Give the backbone structure.
Amino acid sequence: MCIDPTRRRGTRHSRGRKSAPRAGSPAQQWLHRGEAPRAEPGHTRCDDRRPRPEGLPREYRDDRVQSDDRDRRATGDRAAVRRRRRHPGRRRHRRRVGEAVVPRERPTGQLVSPRRSVALPSGELVPALGQGTWGWAEHPDSRADEMAALRLGLDLGMTLVDTAEMYADGGSEELVGEAIAGRRDEVFLVDKVLPGNADRQGTLDACRRSLGRLRTDRIDLYLLHWRGRVPLGETVAAFDELVRGGQIRHWGVSNFDTRDLADLAAVAGGGDVATDQILYNLQRRGPEFDLIPHCRQRGLPVMAYSPVEQGRLLEHPALAEVASRHGITPARAALAWVLRSDGMIAIPRAGSPEHVRDNAAALEVQLDEDDVRLLDQAFPPPRTRRALEVL
């Protein structure tokens, strides 16, 4: 894949085509301040800069709360534990990890999809299906629809929300902050720092700006958007400082291949990485050869962006046949295929209520062996290593 460092990284549309970047647009300016991803063997690059060696739903408890509760139990102060967990005016439904969640009926009559969760290395559970916002806040006439879509997604249990300082030059963060106002504790918020800002002070400053745009005091998962020139150890040290200061709760990476993860593991604190967000869908199966097994072996969740290839998969005959068998849309079938894997988080984008509901319903789809076999024939899994593809 040819990655032009002068081109913005694109607008992730789940169903539409990628619009051409506007000259001098904020996203282009961000990319000039950052750096293009380095080429692995097999990548095609248009430049040759430097070779390189990529809150929660209420039932998901904060690790710090759990730790406090364990301390109180250890000292016999069980009443304090009960007081700590009590929420006035709301009955809590307690369940064990791995227990099935029964769909509940909302007052509006809208059935909430069962929530499926993925464990971070810390043990904290996050939703397996979230919402992406790449391309949002770029067109004022779409803002109301994007806001409504995000809020509906929260109602349907898709409470993991992904954004980045690069998206619409911070505009996506502002939209997300407005949409989750009053519901912050329901949301697991994922944000990203540009590699051009990823030195120690730059990371601290970028996080502070993002917190302001998001109207919150913390980011649940803060990612390095892609690997640049700043030494990984410096970025990790900044992440650790932010964790200790309470500005972020976890940190991770995006667009890291196996060698990048190996380099990360070699730096002090690199083992605290919580996820790797990558391009993964039926048409981009290269990570299955070594990257996904590498992550699975280390208990590192994979977060898949563009899980329906910006809509380009939806006309494929094999996907249409699988969808027809189940009486669902091709988009829902493609998303269900991504979600079938353990340790996989998907962050599709949706621009309309209909699309949001379709995404949420993907959690209810169970593909059978015949479905998977047909899709494997149409989209063969990799037989050799492929360089990590990036949008």
Notes: The domain at 119-391 is CATH 3.20.20.100 (TIM Barrel). The chain has a mean pLDDT of 80. Residues 200-214 form the longest helix (15 residues). The CA atoms of residues 92 and 308 lie 35 Å apart.
